[in-house]
Amino acid sequence: MALSLDDWIGLDTTVGRIEGRIRELRRAVEQDGVPDLRTSVLTHLAWVPPAYEQAATDTLAGLAERHPSRAILLIPDPDAGSDGLDAEITLRCFSLPGLEAHVCSEVIELRLRGRRSIAPASIVAPLLIADLPVFLRWRGRPSFGEPWAEQLFDLVDRLVVDTSEWLDLPGAYAELAAHFDGVAVSDLAWRRMLPWRAELAALWPGIASASRLSVLGPHADGLLLAGWLRSRLGRDIALDLDERSEVETISVDGRAVSYPAEPPQTSSDQLSDHLDQFVRDPVYEAAVRAAQEEQVFDLET
Predict the structure, then answer these.
(1) DSSP letters along 247-265, please?
(2) Phi and psi (nearest 5°) for 93?
(3) Which residue did the predictor score with more confidence, 53 or 61?
(4) CA-CA distance, 276 to 152, in Å (whole number)?
(5) Pairing of strands 134-138, 158-161
(6) Are 207 and 237 in contact (CB under 8 A)?
(7) Which residues, listed in sequence order, are joined to residue 138 by a DSSP beta bridge?
(8) How far apart are the first and last CA of the chain?
(9) Which end of the chain, N or C, is surrounded by fewer C-beta atoms within 10 Å?
(10) pLDDT of residue 2
(11) Where are the strands (E) in 141-267, listed by range?
C-alpha cells in the first residue's frame, strides 16, 4: 500500500537545489517513526516528449513496488519562451507486509525549457545513484546522431525503446543497430512478440522450409518477427503486412499460427521485464539487422 507524502515543486531551479530537497524528503520519512529501507536497485531515466507524458506517468505508477528506484522523467520543451529547469519531486513509499518498515522510491520530474532541453546529460549526471545500473526509456524515436542525445546514451547501461512508436521503419533500424556496441538495447515491440515467436518455434521442423510470413498487426511487430525468422533460418522470408494497432493474426505460407494463450501484458509489465535484463540480446540484434532488408508487401494494395 502506497503512503501519501508531500511533493516538492521547484520552478526555475538548479540541480543543487534538487539534490538538497531529495535529502530533506528522505529525512522527513526517517523521522516519521517508521524505518525507511533504501533498496533502490537502479536509476530509471525516461525521455518523455509532452505527447507521451500521460502514458509514461501511468507506466511508472505500476513499477514502483517491483523496482524500487530513483525515477527521473525528462520532459523537453525546446520551444518554451525562456531557458530554465522546473522540477517536481515525489517520494513514493510502500509498506511491507508483516514489517514495521516501508520501501521508498523517488520520482523526479524535470521540465527542460528552451536550451536546457539540449543539455540533459549535464543535468542528469549528478542525480544518478552511484554504483547502480542506469536504464533509459526513450519515448518516441531517439534523436540518434545528435550530440546531446549521444551524451545521454553514454550515461546509461541500457536503452529501452518501443519501435512501434517510430514512423520511419525499417530504415530507422540501421541507426539503432549502429548503437548496439555502445549500449545494450531493449525493444518493447520485441517483447510483445515473444508469445508469437514461441508459437512459431513450436512449428519446427516444418517451419524450416517457410518462405512467406503474413501479419495483421503493427508495422514494427511484423518487421521484427520476419527479421527473427530470417536470422534464425539464414535466408530470405517475404513479409505480407496489413497494419493494425495490435497483432490479430499471423500465418506462415498460408497456414494460420495459433493465437498465444499468454494474456497481453500491461505497459508496466513490459517495461518491468526489461529492467531485469543487464546484458545484450544477440537474437534481438540479429532480428533488427535482418529486418532492415525485408521485402514487405502491403496486403491492402
Answers:
(1) --EEEETTEEPPPPSSPPP
(2) -115, 145
(3) 53
(4) 21
(5) parallel
(6) no
(7) 47
(8) 52
(9) C
(10) 47
(11) 158-161, 184-187, 212-217, 238-243, 249-252, 255-256
Closest CA relative to residue 126, chosen from 24, 43, 16, 42: 16
Query: What is the per-residue pLDDT for 22?
Result: 86
Give the cell for residue 132. 547502480
Residue 153 has which C-alpha cell?
Answer: 546514451
Residue 97's pLDDT is: 61
DSSP assigned state of 186: E
DSSP state of 65: T
Q: Residue 159: its pLDDT value, please?
A: 97
* All residues at 6 or more sequence positions from 7 whose CB lies less than 8 Å from its CB, including other chains: 88, 89, 90
At 225, which amino acid appears?
L
Give me the torsion for CA of 199, 263, 279, 47, rounded to 10°: 130
Residue with cell 502514458: 55
Bond preceding residue 142 cis, omega within 30 of 0: no
Angle between helices 194-201 and 219-233 (to 10 degrees): 40
What is the rounded CA–CA span in Å between residue 143 and residue 47? 11
Lookup result for grid cell 524515436: 141
CB contact at 8 A, 289 and 230: no
Q: Give SS3 for 201.
A: helix
Cell 524505518: give the residue: 35
Nine cell digits for residue 82? 525562456
